[in-house]
Amino acid sequence: MRPLLGGLRKGSMFFRTTVLAFALLLTPLVARADYLDVITSRLTAGCSLDKYLGVVEEFRGVMKTQGYKYTVEIAPPFIGPDLSVVYWVGREPNFATFGQESDRWEAAIAKAGTPEAMVSAKLNACSENVSRSGSRTR
To answer: pTM to 2 decimals?
Structure first.
């Protein structure tokens, strides 16, 4: 039997390096803790769900073009104690990113004519916030 090229230590080092690399690649998958921003809203008179979803789609476009990481899904309930509301489920990679992007959003909507201010005005005209909560996923 021929000895391993470089001896046993070289084989052991390769194994340890491979395991370490694999562990580092999997760490983000295991340690993921997204931040959820859940807003319960009631649509205003004259704003249908279809119209609201159109404004939400415009919001998504602004988020993308302006470089935000925030994403949103809309969940209108079909079973529950209050079927007159819609749930806005926003998602950020983590709470720190949510805070930074929230500050950026607030500064942008304070300036008339920005894409953020225009879509925010449309959202405010179409819906009224009832409650808001935030949580981290595990």
So the answer is: 0.74
